[in-house]
Amino acid sequence: MASVETAAEHERILREIESTDTNCIGPTLRSVYDGQEHGLFMEKLDARIRNHDREIEKMCNHHFQGFVDSITELLKVRGEAQKLKSQVTDTNRRLQDDGKEVSSQELQQCRVQQRNIATTIDKLTHCLPGNTKRVLLCVRYYPALRTLEQLEHTCLPRAGQYRFCSIMAENIPKLRTQIRDTAMTQLRDFLESIRKHSDKIGEAAIKQVHKTHADTVPAVHELLSLWAGLRDVFENYYRKQRRKQARLVLQPHSNMGYGFPVSQLFDMLLEMREQYGEILLKRWNITFRQVLDQDNYSPIPVSTDQEYKHYTSQFPLQDPELEKLPFPKKLPFSEFVPKVYCQLKEFIYACLKYSEDLHLSSTEVDDMIRKSTNLLLTRTLSHCLQYAIKKKNVGLAELVQVIINTTHLEQSCHFLEEFISNITNVPPDTANATKLYGTSTFKDARHAAEAEIYTSLNAKIDQFLQLADYDWMAAVQGGGTLDASDYLIDLIAFLRSTFSVFTNLPGKVAQTACMSACKHISTSLMQLLLDPEVRQISMGALHQLYTDVKECESFARAGPVAGFQGDTLLLAFSDLRQLLDLFTQWDWSTYLADYGKPTCKYLRVNPHTALALLEKMRETSRKNNVFAQFRKTDRDRQKLIDTVIKQLRNLIAQHHT
């Protein structure tokens, strides 16, 4: 199990090295050197480098050969094109020379003869369908009507004004009436035959009816397609007769029909409904796990309008601003949003299919589907989302995408309400109708992801703070300005790149994460000052910490996340700032005089904190100044520290009393 976790951790580190900015790679490399499998990681890194080299070489070889082949083919085509051009020129020249020998008068005479021959053939062809015997010899009515239609509308008008054409045109209506009467007679015989044999039970009767129906009905449909005004007459007559026959055949006898008791069967099916629902929940639990495990937690890129319509047909995305953007563009959510939404609809269909033929009312079916869907949302999908959020190796980018995804799924819940109402024909505002709990499910998942972001962000900050290496006994540097610590510069660069990813998050989430990070940095630096293991602190160390806090305030003042009013973010560092101002400016008279007043300059400095830090400075003063009793300046400073400590203790005692 340990080797599997080590392999997963190495894979995460490799992905972070490939995708992380070089300014933020310090903690990642530290986690590599802190691990116990350093050699194994280096082997995996070398394998990953060799794999990329092979892919680059393979791609170059593939495209190079195609380029060479294309140049070769182009050279061949150029030669063939020159040959073709010379041949066409030569052929045109010879054709022009041969055409000069033919006289224009002979050519005109030949064209007149050719036109007369074509006209004669055309007239004779139009007169061929005019043979009345061909119509009368047709056994089926459809070919006869088709021939009459072709003769009337196509052949006779094109044949010309001949006597036999007018005679045939006068006989066409009579022939059409004769065919209609004969077809109606055959239809009546067909219906009577069906009624006569409908009471027969068994395979022979079914085959006979099927054969008769197959032979006659297609002919009837073919005939109906050729009449403009009689189609409705035939269809209404046929439907009326068949409806009467159906009532006679399907009407049960008074002593039986279909009188078997089935109430116990329906009761059993209703009892099985809960078990079937549990089976569906287990099946969809596996499906949701697979969808979440296979997701890349990245926005979906779309390059064409066809791809955009494909995803919007699966999920009801309504974003007019996104629609106006040109291609290529990205959808805000990842693949698991449309997949989860489609799976929710599939689950609803599965519940609806089970409720068919159970003789339940629409309201009962609607209630059953909504309750089952609520179980799917609150139990199955909720647990799967929590599993995806809490599992190892989930980075901040993935958590941000989870929040975006759950926000869009939450906004789609009313579409699911409408979907259920459409398939059950029960309005969503019906009294006592069960409401879907999708909104609360996705809200809970989003809040869990937000809390995980705050935790992961603070853990990442702690990794940077572990690199802090302050010299607590550093001397005060005369002149010049101090530079911020290297670890803090890397930490701020990491925070800037991280908060740039938070642009798609809801405003309050990004603001809370930023404020939480700043407070965590301030609290951690304060803990470094008050660490019991740090027994001595010099004024030079406080100056270095003062510079680092100033760098943090510069980061906060730049507004890494939009939405903060004024210097709100600077309040996270106010406790540490006032404490360092008090010590670096040595303004104890102001602090002691104004303590407890609302307008106090050092209102956020706790006297216990100030006393603890001052005692560490006194220890430094005692040990560093061995000959302090021989120097008046050091002796006076030591007395001043002792006096301030005494006053602080009196102040604490007074307020405690």
Automatic annotation (TrEMBL):
- InterPro entries found in the cross-reference section: EXOC6/Sec15, EXOC6/Sec15_C, EXOC6/Sec15_C_dom1, EXOC6_Sec15_N, EXOC6PINT-1/Sec15/Tip20_C_dom2
Keyword Transport among record annotations: yes
- Record domain Exocyst complex component EXOC6/Sec15 N-terminal: where: 44-206
Gene Ontology terms: biological process: Golgi to plasma membrane transport; intracellular protein transport; vesicle tethering involved in exocytosis
- Locate the Exocyst complex subunit EXOC6/Sec15 C-terminal domain: which residues? 264-616
Listed under GO cellular component are: exocyst; plasma membrane
Keywords, sorted A to Z: Exocytosis, Transport
Q: What's this chain's function? A: Component of the exocyst complex involved in the docking of exocytic vesicles with fusion sites on the plasma membrane.
Question: Can you name this protein?
Answer: Exocyst complex component
Which gene name belongs to this protein?
A: exoc6b
